[in-house]
Design brief:
This protein has one domain: Nuclear Transport Factor 2, Chain: A. The protein is 26% helix and 41% strand. The chain has a six-stranded mixed β-sheet, with helices on one face.
């Protein structure tokens, strides 16, 4: 089940399919890893800035374990990137997140994640 429109790049469809498929299916992140470039560049409010995917894959595991549902709010796509705003239904309420993606060769090169970290932790994020 994807939350995105048909305008979304296939790599994002696959990414959100993983995010919404549950922790049992996520496993060790081996389905997500091939979607990311080797020098994947991530920045988020809790994790900070990281190059490489290992810490990101761990963080996604914690996110998936605590999210009950994701509802799309808005998406914007161009040839090099996308921006997606969604509401994550957490154990103690809803948290709004925004993800800014850059793509290279059909894979995710960079991801900037924005949300209120205090709100995320208060609502059950790990």
């Amino acid at each position: 089940m994807t939350i995105l429109s048909q305008r979304a790049p296939s790599v994002l469809e696959a990414y959100y399919e993983i995010l919404t498929s549950g922790i049992e299916k996520y496993g060790d992140g081996s389905a997500l890893s091939p979607l990311l470039m080797e020098d994947f560049d991530f920045e988020g409010p809790i994790a900070g800035h990281e190059v490489g995917s290992s810490l990101f894959l761990e963080g996604v595991r914690g996110f998936i374990a605590n999210v009950n549902r994701i509802d799309l709010v808005q998406e914007v796509h161009d040839t090099d990137g996308s921006a997606v705003i969604y509401d994550a239904h957490m154990p103690e309420g809803i948290v709004r997140l925004t993800e800014f993606f850059r793509f290279t060769n059909g894979r995710i090169q960079r991801l900037r994640l924005l949300y209120d970290p205090a709100d995320y932790l208060a609502k059950g994020g790990a």
